[in-house]
């Protein structure tokens, strides 16, 4: 029997119950999709100007003056990396796995995506507001994208819920999470170019992660509404197998009960008599007419 074609991802160990791994695949896939788009533009137009003009402004967070016409970028800027930043994307995924795995182990898989995306949202707001700083402090690049704020939120959430956690590399050697977070923070600051709006964006992401954990510890479920909506939508589009089976069973029973009994015709009785004769005396005992009748019945 031919089985249904399945994706290879569920066969990755722990993939189905690993929200961090799913998030990493999602972000890596977004990077690949954007890199392919960049390559196509380069092949067709032999220059990157068209990509910077038509693609980047519609997915990257802009300067505050351009934000009213590109407000939607606040919700998508964090899932993309610039196409020429493969190493940055790779290092970000490693940091996400590092802190995300700890956080997932402590608060469960359902909290990973909400913390990450809430951190991106608040980080984006801080990025825009930081551009109002006086003097040159509010200066920033024309466009920015990447999950810095989300990573800061995941990191802040992990150290908030378990500041004494240690990464055991061997049975006798371990690293404190606060030390690893310190290295991460230094690298993030260096990568920010020391632009205050970018630093503000990372601070906003860290604040979101911190507040999310504090709400969880206080007994609140900030992301419960997301999963409630998701469960309702899933029930709307997913067929109820038990109801379908029951309905089919009722229809099948009704069809069987309504089927009239077969009438025994003279031709059928004749064929039955011929078959009985074969059982008693053998096929060679049949006459030519009986053999012809049996052949016609077989064709019918």
Query: Any idea what the shape is?
Result: elongated
Question: What is the count of structural domains?
Answer: 2
Order of helices and strands: HHEHHEHEEHHHHHH
Portion in strands: under 5%
Radius of gyration: 34 Å
- The CATH architecture name of the largest domain reads Up-down Bundle
Adjacency order of strands in the biggest sheet? 1-2
How far is the N terminus from the C terminus?
Answer: 31 Å
Assembly category: single chain
Question: What's the name of the CATH homologous superfamily of the largest domain?
Answer: Rhomboid-like
Regarding CATH, which class of the largest domain?
Answer: Mainly Alpha
Protein structure class? mainly alpha
Low-confidence region ranges: 1-8
- CATH topology of the largest domain: the name is Rhomboid-like fold
Percent of residues in helices comes to 55-70%
Q: What summary fits the major beta sheet?
A: 2 strands, antiparallel
Number of beta-strand segments: 4
- What's the total helix number? 11
- Mean residue pLDDT: 83
List the helices and strands and how they pair.
Layout: H1 19-45, H2 49-54, E1 61-62, H3 86-107, H4 112-130, E2 143-144, H5 148-161, E3 166-168, E4 174-176, H6 177-191, H7 196-217, H8 224-237, H9 241-258, H10 266-281, H11 288-299
Antiparallel strand pairs: 1-2, 3-4
Helix pairs in contact: 1-3, 3-5, 4-5, 4-7, 5-6, 5-7, 10-11
């Amino acid at each position: 029997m031919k089985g249904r074609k399945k994706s290879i991802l569920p066969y990755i160990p722990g993939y189905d119950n690993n929200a961090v791994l799913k998030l990493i695949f999602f972000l890596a896939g977004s990077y690949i999709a954007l890199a392919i788009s960049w390559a196509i533009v380069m092949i067709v137009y032999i220059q990157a100007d068209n990509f910077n003009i038509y693609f980047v402004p519609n997915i990257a967070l802009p300067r505050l003056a351009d934000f009213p016409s590109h407000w939607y970028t606040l919700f998508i800027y964090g899932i993309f990396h610039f196409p020429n930043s493969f190493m940055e994307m790779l290092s970000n995924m490693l940091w996400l796995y590092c802190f995300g795995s700890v956080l997932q182990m402590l608060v469960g898989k359902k909290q990973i995506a909400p913390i990450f995306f809430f951190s991106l949202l608040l980080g984006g707001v801080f990025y825009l507001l930081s551009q109002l700083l006086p003097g040159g402090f509010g200066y920033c690049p024309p466009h920015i994208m990447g999950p810095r704020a989300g990573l800061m939120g995941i990191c802040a959430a992990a150290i908030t819920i378990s500041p004494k956690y240690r990464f055991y590399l061997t049975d006798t050697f371990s690293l404190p999470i606060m030390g690893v977070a310190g290295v991460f923070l230094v690298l993030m600051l260096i990568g920010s170019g020391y632009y205050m709006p970018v630093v503000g964006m990372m601070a906003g992401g860290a604040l979101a992660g911190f507040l999310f954990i504090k709400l969880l510890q206080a007994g609140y479920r900030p992301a419960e509404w997301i999963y409630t909506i998701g469960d309702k939508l899933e029930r709307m589009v997913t067929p109820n197998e038990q109801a379908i089976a029951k309905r089919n069973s009722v229809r099948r029973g009704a069809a069987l009960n309504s089927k009239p009994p077969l009438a025994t015709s003279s031709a059928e009785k004749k064929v039955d008599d011929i078959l009985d004769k074969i059982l008693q005396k053998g096929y060679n005992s049949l006459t030519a007419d009986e053999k012809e009748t049996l052949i016609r019945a077989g064709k019918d």
